[in-house]
Amino acid sequence: MNKLDDSNIAYTLIKLCKLDGLKIASPPCPFDGLESDYFIQLGNQDFFHVKTGTNYEFYKTQALGQVDECSALLQFKESFAISKSVSADPLAYPKVSFWTREGDGNRSNCCSWDGVECDEDFGHVVGLDLRSSCLYEISKLSKLSTLDLSFNDQKLDDSIPLKLTKANMRSLVQNLTTIKQLHLNWVEMYSTVPDILVNASSLTSLQLGDCELNGEFPIGIFHLPNLEVLDVEGFDQNPINLPWQNLRSLDLQTNMLQGSLPIPPQSIRNYMVGSNHYSGEISPSFCNLNHLQILDLSNNNLSGMLPQCLGNSSALEISMLTNNSFHGSIPQMCPDENSLKMVDSSYNQLQGKIPRSMANCTQLEFINLENNQISDIFPSWSGALPALRALVLRSNRFHGMIGKSAANHDFPKLCIIDLSNNGFLGMLPSNYLENWNSMKFVGKNQQHYFSVFEKFDSSDKYAYFYAYPYSITTFAKEVELKYTNTPYLLRLIYRFLK
């Protein structure tokens, strides 16, 4: 291959003949300090994965590698730029730097190269483990003419994402006829979604979030028979019926979808449809989703009363209902065993009291009920929540003195509290101010923003680290400050008389 010929990049990995999957994405959030890595996957039934992300178990077997595939890996190696400064992992090292065909027989065998996995019978390359390998740029990959990467952090930190600059999505996927997993999250393509994906019947996971896609979305994708994960944006055809009985994750955030909420199957774990134009009420059938971990209905036109059974799930971790028109009381939540970490029901018309069952939410980090019509006294019982970092009750109808609970709980991890624009009387108890140690000190945590992380299941082949940032609104000198991502260094006590 002529390296100066930008139009023939197809040969870079074309000889990896078992390839039927392609994934180029970044991890969605900082985790375990691996803020600077990104994730690349090339997967199929034989070619399982290529990854530079977080920790997964990886098994490597040695065999005599196929000569043409070893050569393809050397061309693949040339696609990367390497810098030790891009990885926060202290054990990171540039694995591909040691790939070479020179030297003794064992060293020239690509199945012995660090990060390369081959099948034992035929020596085909079936996996690449490039996590924490100090990689930060790809200039050529498979069918791409140019794929530039300037990546030092996640998109949550306003980093520069992967960019596809000289080709479109069709040129990337047109020869992947048996593809099973196509993951292009955070790859800026400014491309249409090719209709040839409608024929990719083997697809089980399609992730095209934050790709700057445009044009008409092929509605036939909603009829692919085997999808378990779907993450797409930039379209307006509402999939009223979800035909997949094994659907695990549905991410339709930031589209132009209207009508009623599509009802997911029992298998669903992540249901994320925020920032659309959905209307109507939440169906009581959502109460039967026993595996649901993320429920994000934020920023829609939904209304009605919340089903009182909605908080009964022991699996639910993140509940995002903000910026709708829900009214009525807040459902009881947190049964004896629960996983709830985030409740954001701000900017609705909810009334009544905060359910006392929330005292059972021992993993709860973030409560935001601002801009509702809740009439209650100060929830001093919430001081017993061991993980609570943010309590936002601004602009409601809370009243009475701000007292301490009889058990003398004192919010051990509280960093943010906003009680403003209510009817509270008196001052905060001095003991609160003395004992709120998390208000006084900022540890060495490398987080840039407060976030809630979904529990990671290493046995789930489609598992991702989903992160939901704390989102709050406050005032400084009568100027409204909206924090879509709340800085980790922020410490806030906001209290004034109504």
UniProtKB/TrEMBL annotation:
InterPro entries: Leu-rich_rpt (IPR001611), LRR_dom_sf (IPR032675), LRR_N_plant-typ (IPR013210), RLP23-like (IPR046956). It is a single-pass type I membrane protein. It holds the Pfam family LRRNT_2. Coiled coil: none annotated. Gene3D superfamilies: Ribonuclease Inhibitor. Residues 69-119 form the Leucine-rich repeat-containing N-terminal plant-type domain. Keywords: Glycoprotein, Leucine-rich repeat, Membrane, Receptor, Repeat, Signal, Transmembrane, Transmembrane helix. It is found in: Membrane. One of its GO terms (cellular component) is membrane. This is Receptor like protein 30-like.
